[in-house]
Every structure is written in structure tokens, then in C-alpha cells.
Design a protein that fits this description.
The protein has 137 residues and is mainly alpha-helical. The protein contains 6 helices and 3 strands.
Length: 137
């Protein structure tokens, strides 16, 4: 049996990937890695409308990567910061997943002469269907 990551950990990594898959969110996170930023600074630097900043920040906050705080004097101003602990945890999880020490020498059980035991949707042995040309393509 393969030593695979638990499904729950894979789901968390996939969710993180979705959060980080947007270039504007990466740009926002990059700015926040330089320190606390006001929503107006993010808007000016990235050329984003306020509603788009709110949209991307909501996604980053739901992922736990970013925190926000309203100005105590004028609540229109929102200050965003990276949650360093959450970022460290995300980096550690991704590092564990992509650790090349996990790569093990292995010979596939299937292929010519193998005994895969996998059947296709018609219930035919995969190797039999490949030999007859049905499994190609």
C-alpha cells in the first residue's frame, strides 16, 4: 500500500491552492509580507477598486492567511496584515507534501507481464482490453 497523505490534508492543500491561484491575491499577499497595509494603499498599488479588494481580502481572511482591523477613529480605513502563524503552517504543510524524501523506489504492478487486476467500465481486465486495442486512447 502506498503511504499517501490523508484525504483531509489533501483537501486543505487544495483549498490553499485555490486561494493562492489568483494573481491579484498573490500580489496582495506579497504587499502584506512587507508589513501592514491600508486598503487605500493596496488599491493605489494594484489599481483595484474597493469592492475587488474586499472580495480578495475576504477569501484570504477565510483561509486564515490575513487579518484585518478597522481604524479606531475612522472605521472607513481597514488595515490588513499577514497572520504569520497561519502562513508558517501553510508553508510547513506544503513543504511536507512536496518533500522529495517522500519519493520511494517503486515498480508499477501493471504493464506487460504485470498483474494489475484493474477492470474497465465494461468489467473487462484492463490488460486484456489494451491487448485487443479497446483500452487505447
Amino acid at each position: 500500500m502506498l503511504n499517501q497523505f490523508p484525504a483531509q490534508d489533501l483537501a486543505r492543500l487544495a483549498a490553499l491552492g485555490r486561494v493562492l491561484s489568483h494573481p491579484k491575491r498573490l500580489a496582495i499577499l506579497d504587499m502584506l509580507m512587507q508589513g501592514v497595509q491600508c486598503n487605500c494603499e493596496i488599491a493605489a498599488q494594484l489599481g483595484l477598486a474597493d469592492n475587488l479588494i474586499s472580495h480578495h481580502m475576504r477569501i484570504l481572511q477565510e483561509a486564515g492567511l490575513v487579518t484585518s482591523q478597522r481604524d479606531p477613529v475612522d472605521a472607513r480605513w481597514i488595515y490588513y496584515a499577514v497572520d504569520a502563524n497561519a502562513v508558517d503552517a501553510a508553508v510547513a504543510a506544503l513543504s511536507r507534501f512536496l518533500d522529495t524524501n517522500r519519493i520511494q523506489p517503486r515498480t508499477p504492478a501493471c504493464g506487460p507481464g504485470g498483474a494489475c487486476g484493474v477492470t474497465n467500465i465494461d468489467g473487462q481486465d484492463v490488460q486484456d482490453s489494451q491487448r485487443s486495442g479497446l483500452g487505447a486512447g
